[in-house]
Design a protein that fits this description.
alpha/beta, globular, 6-stranded mixed beta sheet, nucleotide-binding, P-loop_NTPase, ABC transporter ATP-binding protein, about 20% strand, about 30% helix, ABC_transporter-like_CS, 4-stranded antiparallel beta sheet
């Protein structure tokens, strides 16, 4: 008697297959990433943590096709990176808003340059696209600030606008490289909650690089801990806390225990004596 058929496993949205990265040549050669394999499902939210220089941002750049692997393969949406366009949104620690454009026009910039939206930009920039930008700004608490310029906003407000710009073109993949690292604790926590709400609404696949262990545990569905250079993944664990998560939860014993576990892994990865902040950058 035959058993029940085994359900097919969905193909990962992002896949690193035995990827290495080496910079420079000869005596100046530096291996940034040792052989790394990792799978990320569509709609997942994965946080990368580890000591400085461990290759977290290198993984982000590989997915964004900003650098090429020295060996191995990177697949996005089932194809080798670069083989087929994938809409990607990016947000970094520095919001990099264009100072001569108002906030609304900054947010709409990807619609002007990313297909298929760029072909419709002239016709829709004052109607549908403007409405889309205003709706996103309202979702992050910036309703009424579309006509302001970056220099008129605080750092936290600029980072909110930066998130809107990263999401305006409905990306399939969102790459976040320490986007909240330069902000004060209260602003950072407020933006964690906004980022969580945006992800729960849109279910974009997200890859987050952070040094903040509370941030990783608050936002991530999974946390990957990386070793010191040459980087490799030491631990890949799911975060079991239900959503929506609250800031109060981050002070509960089980949440603190997860932070301490992550901290211990990173201290070991650094060689045992480094100072690692469990709750701040």
């Amino acid at each position: 008697m035959s058993g029940s058929p085994v359900p097919s496993r969905p193909k990962p949205f992002i896949e690193f297959e035995k990827v290495t990265v080496t910079f420079g040549r000869g005596a100046k050669q530096v291996q940034a990433l040792s052989e790394t394999s990792l799978e990320i499902a569509e709609g997942d939210f994965v946080a990368l943590v580890g000591p400085s220089g461990c290759g977290k941002s290198t993984l982000l750049k590989l997915v964004g096709d900003l650098i090429k692997p020295s060996s191995g393969y990177v697949y996005v949406a089932g194809r080798e990176i670069g083989a087929q366009p994938v809409r990607i949104g990016m947000a970094y620690q520095n919001p990099t808003l264009l100072p001569w454009l108002n906030i609304r026009d900054n947010v709409m910039m990807p619609l002007k340059i990313v297909p298929p939206f760029r072909g419709e930009f002239r016709a829709k920039r004052k109607t549908e696209f403007r409405e889309r930008a205003e709706a996103l700004l309202a979702q992050v608490g910036l309703s009424g600030f579309g006509d302001k310029f970056p220099w008129q906003l605080s750092g936290g407000m600029m980072q909110r606008a930066n998130l809107c710009r990263a999401l305006i073109h409905e990306p399939e993949l969102l790459l976040l490289d320490e986007p909240f690292g330069a902000l004060d604790q209260f602003t950072r926590e407020e933006l964690w909650q906004i980022m969580q709400e945006l992800w729960m609404t849109k279910k974009t696949t997200v890859l987050l690089v952070t040094h903040d262990l509370r941030e990783a545990a608050f936002l991530g569905n999974r946390i990957c801990v990386m070793s010191a250079r040459p980087g490799r993944i030491l631990d890949d664990s799911e975060v079991a806390f239900a959503r929506p998560r609250t800031i109060d939860m981050t002070y509960q014993p089980d949440f603190v225990a997860l932070n301490q576990q992550l901290r211990s892994l990173i201290v070991s990865a650094r060689g045992g004596t480094g100072i690692v902040q469990a709750g701040s950058h």
